[in-house]
Design goal:
This protein is an alpha/beta fold and 266 residues long. It has ten helices and five strands. Strands 2-1-3-4-5 form a five-stranded parallel sheet, with helices on both faces. The longest helix is centred in the middle third of the chain and has 31 residues.
């Protein structure tokens, strides 16, 4: 895994680089100049970016905005390190695409945990991208018959009927769902683990909208409950609801991918 570190302070940059290099299968590339880091990211594809918040000229939030604006970089996981716990700064950073936070001073264990979580997020993104290609390629010509399996979450015939029988449209929304939902799930997980309930609520609301495009009432009900608990800042209930949502969404993603695979030309 290639991890980019951006920090204008040489001591902090050196510390982060050395700690990252202690992690299994991770290599670090460091930059003291945010503009140079952005230029490097344009032709390259880092698995994770760690950026300091307080930097001259281009702070961490502005860096995140510019990184997400680069073509093909809007889904790059971004971890911000900061000596401040200001909620306003965190909310602004979340709006610009920051995935998680780590307060200075930090320990190696904390860094290891956060990086592991975000690498998992990245792995899910890569898997989702490949699944989306499969779904987009194979579903348009599929016949959408309800599965005799009573445990199936997706009511494909009912979904297709809502779309006026348009199989191509079904495939299009399925492809987007498979590509984007793992990112939302990973983002909600990160938000709950760092008590960023506003972000968890916002992402859960987006997830509810995505699920509502299909006839999957069990999943929709679970996501609505998660959204409710995140909105009320109920950490225990939100975390419990999230585990249910994560499991159901993984099953729904598998059903869409399996449907595409089963209808692919032999």
């Amino acid at each position: 895994m290639e991890i980019i570190i951006v920090d204008d302070e040489p001591v902090s940059l050196t510390l982060l680089k050395q700690l990252v290099r202690k992690l299994p299968h991770c290599q670090a590339v460091g930059f003291t100049d945010p503009s140079a880091a952005l230029a490097w990211c344009q032709p390259n594809d880092p698995d994770l970016v760690i950026v300091d918040y307080m930097m001259p000229h281009v702070d961490g939030i502005e860096f995140a905005r510019r990184l997400c604006a680069l073509e093909g970089r809007s889904d790059t996981p971004l971890l911000m390190v900061s000596a401040t716990a200001d909620r306003t700064i965190r909310n602004s950073a979340l709006q610009q695409g920051v995935s998680g936070f780590m307060n200075k001073p930090f320990s190696f264990v904390e860094l290891q945990t956060r990086v592991a979580d975000m690498i998992t997020m990245r792995s899910k993104q890569i898997k989702a991208a490949s699944q989306a290609v499969l779904v987009a390629r194979d579903l348009p010509s599929a016949g959408f018959n309800e599965s005799p399996n009573n445990n199936q979450l997706l009511k494909s015939d009912s979904t297709l009927a809502r779309l006026d029988g348009d199989a191509t449209l079904f495939a299009a929304i399925a492809s987007v769902f498979v590509r984007t939902v793992p990112q939302l799930i990973a983002s909600i997980s990160m938000a709950l683990s760092t008590n960023c309930f506003d972000r968890a609520y916002s992402d859960a609301h987006s997830l509810k909208g995505a699920v509502s495009a299909f006839e999957a009432p069990e999943v929709l009900k679970a996501v609505a409950l998660l959204e409710q608990h995140a909105k009320s800042y109920n950490a225990t209930a939100a975390t419990a609801a999230f585990y249910v949502v994560e499991t159901l969404c993984e099953r729904l993603l598998d059903e869409l991918t399996s449907m595409a695979a089963s209808t692919a030309p032999k």
